[in-house]
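input
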Amino acid sequence: MTDDTAADAATDRVSERIEEFAPALGRTWTDDEPWDFLTDLTAIGSRMGGSEGERRAAAVVADAFERAGVRDVHEDPFEMLGWERGGCTLCVTTPGRDGGESTREFEALALPYSPAGRVAGELVDVGYGTPEEVDAVDVEGKVVVASTTTPSGSRFVHRMEKFGYAIGEGAAGFVFVNHLDGQLPPTGSLTFGEEAAAVAVGVSKETGAWLREYAANTPGTSGHVDLSVDATAAPAESRNVVGRVGPDTDERLLLVAHYDGHDIAEGALDNGCGIATVATTAGILADADLPIGVDVVAVGCEEVGLLGAERLAGSVALDAVKAVVNVDGAGRFRDLVALAHTSDATAAVADAVATATNHPIEVRAEPHPFSDQWPFVRRGVPALQLHSDSGERGRGWGHTHADTRDKVDDRNLREHGMLIALVVAELAEPDRTVPRLDADGLADAFRDADFETGMRAAALWPAGWE
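output
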């Protein structure tokens, strides 16, 4: 069978599924449940991993799964290192024209897993924070300032990579500067579930502009930046919420989304939209005649290190998992983006659904290790991450105080839920072969995408890929 013939056959199967799913798709088109669920979830406030808010959110998710028709819904608790925010100060001392000095304090947010501590010293601007920019200046013993975004035309360099590389090169502290207007200091974890090696904070674009100008105008001095973080890290408990739709077969698909969020906002976009979309998808699949079972899982602690996904990957028989569908970022913006993580088979599924429905789905092949597919992908399990794109660089309102429910268009939740149900159904088809991922091929793909240096700096490069 040629590639074109196989693609046509897949498109025909999806079209048949649309007819089969028509009653459920019709109900979903006007369903209030996605919006009501998102309202209940965001009303909790903080859903920080390991917190009381995350525990309450798990119960809200379990109720939503049961309303959707997911069966055998239960919680799977696990231990993790919880991080709790305390106070944070960022002060800069500037010389006056009269020979005196003045000190100004700026709003800053400690980044999760920053240790408690204080650092004082010279401030140095490393631009976007890429390895090349860090290497171009002397960061030894200094506090580096880096942007939340990266140059146009390059891959997006994650915060963990920037922090890990700068600290590895001798920086004493890290200031993460939002690239969006609005006095919005960003947050985001520094490590995967363990205390970091240096203090780090996020500041707004406006504060960053002031700090960068100051760094440019006062090079070579010392002791003029004083950065202090108060935080605690202690054993805590998180949980996954697990259920199933479809038959009780050994072979299964995993449909996952994280339900935790950062402690500074409601987490409506990241990832309230994703988990609401999964509950919507599950409601459609619960009425479907599927050839294999689908485990529907809301994972905890994504924001602090993919800990729930790691728990899931370690507790299921991976040989029986045909593929993973990770919904992280879907439902936020109008058009779906499918990240195939080097799998031609999962990419072909997204293409077939886009063709059959005449709904655009942008398919990207390149991998990344910063969402809940990663614990599976690195073990060779093919995956598809369903995201959505605003067309702007970076994460937008996510990881700031502005990640609130008013930013959400619930039409996206419903429509993406319908499209993802068709994606899952096509992956479940017996005629749909989904080969395992090759470790050497994965390593080459990450190298080709220029991930190796950053992943090594963030301690994410798998030992088997040496």
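quick obs: The chain has 14 helices and 15 strands.
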